[in-house]
Amino acid sequence: MSLSRKQMLDEMGLSPQWTLRDQPAVVCGEASARGITSAASPAPRPTPSVETQDSFVESAPERAQHIAGLGWDQLRQSIAECRACGLCAQRKQTVPGVGDERADWLFIGEGPGAEEDARGEPFVGVAGKLLDAMLAAIELKRGENVYIANAVKCRPPGNRTPEAAEMAACAPYLKRQIALIAPRLIVLLGRAAVHALLGEVGSLASLRGKPLAYRDGKNEIPVIVTYHPAYLLRTLSDKAKAWEDLCRARALMRQISRVQAASPG
Ligand code: URA
């Protein structure tokens, strides 16, 4: 599927806010990643040389260690039975994540809302429709080389932002998902996702466009930070910025793929 620039903007609902004539000079496919490592990088998956934050707030070390050893089936089972924080009390079901379990792309949101809680799948409500359009804008599709997860796997009551302790309790699950998927690139949707994965490292606005990475053992996985789809539904004027971020993500993925294709082994 090859979309024209206009089609991509239409997919994201950007055309009315941001005409092609006025758009900023971010061009999809242009190299926007800084400091890509050479083909001689010792890491199995070449990644940019970037600031790395490994600041998951660990919950009980033994529990985290146990979760770190689980395979997909055991992980889903463990999430389904989890009672590590108060969010379990009101959930209809847990929402572990959806998609290709060896995807190159990992998108991380905040936590399930009412519809996700009812259906057991992330991003199936209105924000999910926008996320699907954002994926389509960069020629991605839910389930195809894409995995979608959340910082917390249970619905925060009233769709409030998950508390730091709740995200910390869920962190071993997210961490294990990342290790199992081994994505080439992680896109963080909104502040809670940033907080869950990178810690309190700054405002979302200050992190957009910065070279960031999440360290999983020896691997550094590049991270792109952008706005949460629910926020974009309320703040149409920031959709253009999200579009820039997606362009950056796509350019970065292309660079990573090129570097990896060129690297021996
Ligand atoms: N918002 C999120 O962050 N995640 C979902 O799954 C749905 C809405």
Automatic annotation (TrEMBL):
SMART domains xrefs: UDG, UreE_C
Record-linked SUPFAM superfamilies: Uracil-DNA glycosylase-like
Entry's EC annotation: 3.2.2.27
Enzyme class: hydrolase
PANTHER family with a match to the protein in the record: TYPE-4 URACIL-DNA GLYCOSYLASE (PTHR33693:SF1), TYPE-5 URACIL-DNA GLYCOSYLASE (PTHR33693)
Record-stated family: Belongs to the uracil-DNA glycosylase (UDG) superfamily. Type 4 (UDGa) family.
Protein name as annotated: Type-4 uracil-DNA glycosylase
Native organism: Candidatus Propionivibrio dominans
